[in-house]
Backbone:
């Protein structure tokens, strides 16, 4: 059974750096075809994809945020970490991590999601 | 930039109704499309992948169709638990992964 859980601060100040950790079980992020992504959702608004890391350490970023975010993985700890710099109140959102099996048919489809963690940016 | 546009933004329907939600891509994405259901306070749930494939455990009243730039999600006979917000997602990472703006399905 695959599970993912996000952890990190619930409140950050403007201009600070946010570090979120996705801890998972039931799969290895080094297995061929596996990817883990981060998606966020501001209160009452739509989902926004942020970043993705593949089993081979290839990475993809949202163009609108690529100068502020980075994604890394720690295979031994079963964790994927998202870092976002220069946080702004507009970054207030629920942040989700999600699992994907990547193939030529479904590409990157997020089949299992974490419960999400609400991050508020305020002074 | 790749854009995914859903219509309608919201729809009211009754239990037992047939409902169709449309998602249009700004450029062809072949069949690289997924549909998700999200209930308030919960994470999204994958319903359909590769435009028309039903995810394991999802009721057969949900179906997806389309290719290229136009896609539909159909719920054949609405059940009370189907009232939620639905999102489409372009699943090819080139150039980027993009979600639609969501369609809120409400009880009439």
Residues:
């Amino acid at each position: 059974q695959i599970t993912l859980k996000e952890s990190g601060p619930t409140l950050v100040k403007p201009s600070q750096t946010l570090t979120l950790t996705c801890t998972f079980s039931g799969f290895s992020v080094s297995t061929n075809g596996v990817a883990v992504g981060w998606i966020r959702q501001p209160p009452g608004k739509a989902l926004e994809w942020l970043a993705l890391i593949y089993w081979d350490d290839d990475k993809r970023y949202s163009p609108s945020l690529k100068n502020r975010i980075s994604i890394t993985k720690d295979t031994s700890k079963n964790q994927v970490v998202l870092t976002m710099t220069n946080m702004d109140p507009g970054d207030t959102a629920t942040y989700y991590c999600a699992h994907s099996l990547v193939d030529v048919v479904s590409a990157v489809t997020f089949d299992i999601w974490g419960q999400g963690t609400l991050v508020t940016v305020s002074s | 930039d790749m854009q995914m546009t859903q219509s309608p933004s919201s729809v009211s329907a009754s239990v037992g109704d047939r409902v169709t939600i449309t998602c249009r891509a700004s450029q062809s994405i072949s069949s690289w499309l997924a549909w998700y259901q999200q209930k308030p306070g919960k994470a999204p749930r994958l319903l359909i992948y590769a435009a028309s494939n039903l995810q394991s455990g999802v009721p057969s009243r949900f179906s997806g169709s389309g290719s290229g730039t136009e896609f539909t999600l159909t719920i054949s006979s609405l059940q009370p638990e189907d009232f939620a917000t639905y999102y489409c997602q372009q699943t090819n990472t080139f150039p980027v992964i993009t979600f639609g703006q969501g369609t809120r399905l409400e009880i009439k």
